[in-house]
Task: inverse folding
């Protein structure tokens, strides 16, 4: 008969060791700093104010300035949604996300706030290589160009 071995268990307090936000809260508690422990009601303007304050505090950091300069954020309940132009910007956000979320959560005194960053959908433009393709694109944009061509008696070699 096979001997049954007890399965290892993970205590709830052990999972806090791997949560960077929990680790920061524990360090701040040890330092005697204020730690958010409750979920207060907040407004989207409070989130925007905290966001802008984080950007102002990071004025010396060019990464923060470039990443958040005039960036529109959408607040829906406890979810902050931000759109970025490239994968590189998403990676840069991930580098400072912990500090950003800790700052915002402590400012609005609500630790349920989450950040949802996504990539903007960009349409790929077809490149125009031939004269005919360029003319057709111009004709779509400016329909009167066809009349001008006829009035001037122009004929393009395609």
Result:
């Amino acid at each position: 008969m096979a001997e049954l071995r007890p399965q290892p268990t993970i205590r709830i307090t052990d999972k806090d060791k791997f949560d960077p936000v929990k680790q920061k809260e524990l360090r701040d508690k040890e330092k005697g700093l204020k730690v958010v422990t409750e979920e207060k009601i907040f407004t989207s303007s409070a989130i925007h104010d905290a966001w802008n304050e984080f950007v102002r505090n990071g004025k010396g950091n060019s990464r923060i300035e470039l990443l958040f300069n005039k960036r529109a954020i959408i607040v829906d309940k406890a979810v902050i949604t931000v759109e970025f132009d490239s994968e590189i910007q998403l990676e840069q956000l991930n580098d400072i996300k912990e500090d950003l979320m800790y700052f915002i959560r402590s400012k609005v005194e609500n630790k349920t706030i989450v950040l949802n960053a996504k990539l903007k959908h960009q349409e790929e433009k077809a490149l125009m290589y031939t004269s005919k393709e360029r003319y057709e694109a111009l004709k779509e944009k400016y329909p009167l160009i066809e009349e001008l061509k006829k009035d001037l008696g122009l004929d393009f070699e395609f």
Remarks:
- The chain has a mean pLDDT of 76.
- The radius of gyration is 27 Å.
